[in-house]
């Protein structure tokens, strides 16, 4: 009997220790690397990422949960929210924000590693399409993704079918894109019926 209690105490102690060690260690390495992939991608568009994402440093001792635009669950240490709105920090009031040359082609497969991501804000990035042909399909591995804000980009209807696979989505914001024409008849089939889109 006493032995069982001792074992329980030890187990509790170990759990507390694990949480403490984990808390000090900060974010998960796979998630840190995924975010650095995004930073590299932004940089590959000729942008000064050491200014735009200055806290996102490539240093294994750097806790990505403390980086700007990143939010983690403080218990699990997983990245849960990314505010990648207006990554280029344009003056969105200016006319030049709407220049065709600002249209960006993106790749989102790197976010696949962020398994606990709940909210992804990609608004005001003037994204017009993808450099791979999977579109948003690769995000289908994110089983907890509930909020996806794609407003103020340059997406057209062709992205809708690649949003099909995002089965956990509850809020999808597509306002201020170029969603001309009708929704594809086969599209949006798998999206949860409780989904709220805002236009
Ligand atoms: C990484 O960060 C630590 C703590 O801020 C610093 O002491 C170290 O010099 C950095 N390493 C590199 C390679 O920048
Ligand atoms: C953090 O994660 C834990 C375990 O999954 C969950 O119970 C808790 O609600 C989460 N906290 C927040 C603020 O989402
Ligand atoms: C991103 O959006 C948040 C609100 O969701 C806002 O506080 C922040 O200033 C925005 N960042 C940029 C660079 O616009
Ligand atoms: C995304 O960021 C914009 C600001 O850039 C903000 O207006 C909007 O509310 C954010 N979306 C969500 C879902 O928080
Ligand atoms: C819609 O966007 C895709 C890229 O996502 C592009 O290839 C296609 O030309 C666009 N279609 C129209 C009608 O603009
Ligand atoms: C997305 O869903 C389609 C069926 O609608 C399926 O054929 C495809 O393999 C899925 N893609 C991923 C990456 O899960
Ligand atoms: C749709 O979302 C609701 C509310 O979150 C959830 O209860 C339900 O299981 C979901 N349905 C599917 C098919 O994922």
UniProtKB/TrEMBL annotation:
Signal peptide: 1-23
Protein's UniProt keywords contain Hydrolase: no
Domain of life per record: Eukaryota
All copies of domain Leucine-rich repeat-containing N-terminal plant-type, residue ranges: 30-73
InterPro entries assigned: Leu-rich_rpt, LRR_dom_sf, LRR_N_plant-typ
UniProt entry keywords in alphabetical sequence: Leucine-rich repeat, Repeat, Signal
PANTHER family xref list: LEUCINE-RICH REPEAT-CONTAINING N-TERMINAL PLANT-TYPE DOMAIN-CONTAINING PROTEIN, OS10G0469600 PROTEIN
Protein name (Swiss-Prot/TrEMBL): Leucine-rich repeat-containing N-terminal plant-type domain-containing protein
Protein source organism: Hevea brasiliensis (Para rubber tree)
């Amino acid at each position: 009997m006493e032995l069982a209690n001792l074992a329980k105490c030890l187990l509790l102690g170990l759990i507390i220790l694990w949480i403490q060690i984990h808390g000090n260690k900060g974010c998960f390495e796979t998630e840190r690397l995924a975010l650095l992939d995004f930073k590299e991608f932004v940089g590959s568009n000729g942008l000064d990422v050491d200014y735009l994402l200055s806290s996102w440093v490539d240093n294994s001792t750097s806790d990505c949960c403390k980086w700007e635009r990143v939010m983690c669950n403080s218990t699990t240490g997983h990245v849960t929210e990314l505010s990648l709105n207006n990554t280029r920090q344009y003056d969105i009031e200016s006319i030049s924000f709407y220049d065709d040359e600002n249209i960006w082609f993106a790749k989102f497969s790197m976010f696949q590693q962020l398994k606990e991501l709940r909210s992804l804000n990609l608004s005001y990035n003037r994204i017009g399409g993808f450099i791979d042909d999977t579109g948003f399909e690769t995000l289908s591995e994110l089983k907890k993704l509930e909020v996806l804000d794609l407003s103020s980009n340059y997406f057209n209807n062709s992205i809708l079918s690649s949003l099909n696979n995002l089965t956990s989505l509850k809020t999808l914001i597509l306002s201020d894109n170029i969603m001309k024409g009708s929704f594809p008849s086969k599209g949006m089939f798998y999206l949860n019926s409780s989904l709220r889109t805002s236009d």
